[in-house]
Specification:
The complex is a heterodimer of chains A (120) and B (192). Chain A has 120 residues and is mainly alpha-helical. Chain A has three helices and no strands. Chain A has helices spanning 2-12, 20-35, 50-118. Chain B has one domain (24-180). In chain B, 32% of the residues are buried. Helices cover 34% and strands 29% of the residues of chain B. Chain B is of the alpha+beta class. In chain B, a hairpin with a 4-residue loop joins β3 (108-116) and β4. The chains are: A mainly alpha (120), B alpha+beta (192). Chains A and B meet through α3 of A and β1, α3, α4, β2 and β3 of B.
């Protein structure tokens, strides 16, 4: 059964010489294709200058990136300044309170001494 | 012509009025010599722009930050100079006198003057009151090895400063007495 199938397949796929008509038509087509001038490809405006387009696009991308980086850096600087200002405010208030406490302690000890003297 | 004369008159009055209104901002010297001698120095200059920026970086949900925000809300400047030295008497009284002289100008009232024999610290607190509102505070603290000047400019709400008590360690101040404090009144404002 399988041998029959194989032989049938081999017979079907055997190399066959093309007919003279087929060869003639093929050769005629090939000759005609070589002789005809190539039509220019239809492309969009400026397609003839792809380098310019690439250059412009790269420039725009670089510009956008530069602006982005600059904005980011500015934000960082502002944040840095803000945090530094906050730290300074806290330090200033801490120092002020320390010195107010010095005065407070001096008054407290003075009043305690006065109370002790008067026997209160 | 009459309108022009009136405008000119008002324009001329502006600088006169500006000069006449008390200025709570002190001219604090550079203290370059002291800064060189000091082992530790603190120079803080916060103008309105920096104060507003600092306020934006304080977390309103945090109680301490919220209290700080409240205190600095009406302020127009905080200026601090503090120098710490590694030996006694590294600075002279003349260094402080330039600042102290400004505090004898009209508008400034001495709120407290203290001297501690124990710590040998002198603290002078001055306040400038305008329309029953504290608009400036100056503090000069001279200790054997430290010298500090604080100048706070703007509408200082002492109630709010009071709220910082326990957070920055601000002691209780008698606010009513502070607002109506006559000049040269010593040792009577801080609550016992």
């Amino acid at each position: 059964m399988s041998e029959d199938f194989e032989s049938e397949l081999r017979a079907a796929l055997r190399p066959v010489e093309p007919s003279a008509e087929f060869s003639r038509k093929l050769l005629a087509n090939v000759t005609a294709g070589e002789a005809a001038p190539r039509k220019p490809r239809k492309l969009g405006p400026g397609a003839g200058r792809p380098l310019v387009w690439w250059f412009t696009a790269s420039l725009a991308a670089c510009l956008i990136m530069a602006v982005g980086i600059q904005q980011h850096q500015q934000q960082q600087r502002l944040r840095q300044t803000g945090l530094e200002a906050r730290r300074e405010v806290e330090q200033a208030l801490r120092l002020t309170s320390q010195k107010l406490n010095l005065a407070f302690e001096a008054i407290k000890s003075q009043s305690t001494a006065t109370d002790e003297k008067s026997g209160v | 012509m009459r309108k022009f004369a009136l405008t000119m008159f008002i324009a001329l009055q502006v600088p006169v009025l500006a000069w006449a209104s008390p200025n709570p901002k002190l001219l604090i010297p550079e203290f370059a010599g002291l800064a060189q001698k000091a082992t530790d120095s603190v120079t803080i200059t916060l103008d309105p722009a920096l104060l507003s920026m600092a306020s934006r970086f304080l977390d309103a949900s945090d109680p301490q930050d919220a209290a700080t925000q409240e205190v600095i809300k009406g302020l127009r400047g905080i200026y601090v100079r503090s120098y710490t030295f590694d030996k006694d008497a590294a600075y002279s009284q003349a260094d402080i006198d330039a600042v102290r002289a400004q505090l004898s100008a009209p508008g400034w009232n001495r709120l407290v003057q203290t001297h501690s024999r124990k710590t040998r610290a002198d603290v002078d607190i001055y306040i400038m009151v305008d329309n029953n509102q504290a608009v400036g505070l100056a503090l000069i603290a001279s200790e054997p090895r430290q010298f500090t000047i604080v100048n706070i400019v703007g509408a200082i709400d002492l109630d709010k400063l009071h709220k910082l008590e326990g957070q920055f360690g601000v002691p209780k101040l008698d606010l009513d007495a502070a607002k109506s404090a006559p000049k040269q009144q010593d040792n009577s404002i801080l609550k016992k």
